[in-house]
Request: fold
Amino acid sequence: MADRPKWFQTTAIDYPNSRPHIGTAFEKVGADVQARYRRMEGYDVFFLMGNDENTVKVSKRAAELGLDTQAYCDDMARQFREVWDALDISYDVFVQTSTERHKECARAFIQKVNDAGYIYKGSYEGWYCDGCESFKTEKELENGNCPIHKRPVTKRSEPCHFFKLSAFTDRLLKFYEENPDFIQPESRRNEIISLIKTDGLYDVNITRRGEAWGIRVPFDPEFTIWVWFDALLTYITGIGYGDDRAMFDRFWPCDTHFIGKDITRFHCALWPAMLWAAGEKPPTKVFGHGFVNFAGDKISKSRLEELKKKGLDYLLEPMEIIRKFSAEAFRYYFLRECPYPSDGEISPDRFIDVFNSELANNLGNLLSRTITIPTKNYGGSLPDTAGKTPEPVVPGLDLAAFVETVRGHVEACRYNLALQTIVQDFLTPTNQYLEANAPWKLVKTDKDAAARVLFNAVQSLRVASILLKPFIPRSAEAIYTSFNFPKPWAEVRYTDAAVLSAQPDDLRVTAELVDGKPKPLFPRIG
RNA sequence: GGCGGGGUAGCUCAGGGGUUAGAGCAGUCGCUUCAUAAGCGACGUGUCGCCGGUUCAAUUCCGGCCCCCGCUACCA
Reply:
């Protein structure tokens, strides 16, 4: 373990105001592909997720439901994890920021930043609404009125603690320049850079006064720590910051923070500055993924009502999609149809199209036909194939280069292109190969030749299942274990997909059969 | 308003100064029947946002305009 390279990644820490929706699920699924891919490739992976609970809104929501805030948080955390588990998200730790351990680590961190001189006491001046008992930003105001209470806000100032973010302006710009891959995709990087260059960075108020729920500021207990300052710390408290330096040093800096494109600024400017202030390294990469819309529209309250009327609101609730179809179908749809770096959309028709054409018709049916023909004609075992090296079935395809193309897409989180490449450049040609050689006919005239055709075609399923492992782990395993490929599934790597090699035994169908036929891996839907 | 990205087949998008502008899906027709009514083949369509300019030649370059999207700091 010690000599394996490490891979530490996180997803955004979710705000448990409501149940997880398809947008948050999209983020987790994309991150999960990366975690699974890195594990396959031999990395010592640590995948962190969690919920961001130390905010007034959470305690208000709990109060509305008549629940103790902690009990509410714990229940929401349970609900979130239930969805992530159902989607086979392979996280290693799930951090709740309301736990005492996180709070202690956060207090240690802010104390350190304060000791280093990056925090100073000042006063925050803003527009205050008595009804909301909170400050409003200029943007929120409607003609100078509180948008909720429709009455004028008043100028008010109160003491607070500022973090000297401005002190890191030049260092951040230099950092972005020296680490061009720090912010992905590039469009996000350009936004942040131009923002800082035009407006500069201001010091930020990192405390709130007079709130019962939250983490006390150790050097001034009248205050609690502003949620963002605390939430970001999850990324380090979850890997031992504050009480397990060895583990922290093993995994930090973070290799990729997966986040929504809306919070890139916090992760790309505030977060590195906070870490520098505490004497730690900044993360290696921040990936701001896109959003999921519903059939072209943003998911607003009115849109939701409309969908409910049409009975389509299930498509917004991950658990419903999983129940109706499967976690694998969910994963495949979003990974294939929504480009991870930019926005995508879900629509009922499209979901059915993608599932049927690629999973059922192309991949699933290819598996069925390559299992059935050997079973019917050879008792499931292809004679004289032991020790033989399969021949390529895709004309003109350099298998090693093809695998590297897919790998490049996976590493850059271009999951849709990775899947497109696998299906179009590999699976479809395999179906064409079968059509061209028609082993179901050939078997009547030349049984040996037909066996070789099948032997070759089956290799495509071995290759595809390996490449698909991070995307649809359960289905990929089902495909791989439908034949007696020698390498254990747990040990396959992408490089195994890049070569066609002989195996010691005759190729044999090992899939479970009912009346000589496999049950469809992806039964058509709709 | 400022900065950035984009407007290409019914849909999602790729492409890019030059012979007939591409892919997948959907559609139509044919072949096939090993297979999940799956597979394979063939076929169609596009004023490549609008208006000008540069050029032998522009959808591709330049300018203007229209439309869409993102960012524009303390809300997670």
About this structure: Chain A has three domains: 6-115+228-289, 293-346, 351-518. The longest helix of chain A spans residues 348-378.
